[in-house]
Amino acid sequence: MVMFAADEITLSAPDHPALVIDLMERRDPFRCVTSELWAVDNNLNLANMDWEEFASAAEDGIFRGV
């Protein structure tokens, strides 16, 4: 289960990177630009990609797409 959270960084940074939090396995969170949240949500729910693939693609901790 994944939670997307908007915090001060999300609201003030240019790309509005939301915090992506793994509620089940408590892996390290990463950020995702809002325009790519759909990709993270859909691919994790369908098991097309896993958490590690998104987290490792997050440059400077922010996932901007593949």
Overview of the molecule:
The structure is a single chain. This protein has 66 residues and is of the alpha+beta class. It contains three helices and four strands. Strands 1-2-3-4 form a four-stranded mixed beta sheet. It starts with a strand and ends with a strand. The model has no long low-confidence stretch (mean pLDDT 95).
Distance between the termini: 22 Å
Instruction: Give the structural class.
Output: alpha+beta
Largest sheet: 4 strands, mixed
The coarse silhouette is globular
Write out the strand line-up for the largest beta sheet, numbering strands in chain order.
Answer: 1-2-3-4
Mean pLDDT equals 95
Secondary-structure blueprint:
Layout: E1 2-5, H1 8-12, E2 18-22, E3 30-32, H2 37-46, H3 51-56, E4 62-63
Outline of the structure:
This protein has 66 residues and is an alpha+beta fold. It has helices spanning 8-12, 37-46, 51-56; strands at residues 2-5, 18-22, 30-32, 62-63.
List keywords for this structure.
66 residues; alpha+beta; 4-stranded mixed β-sheet; single chain; 3 helices; globular
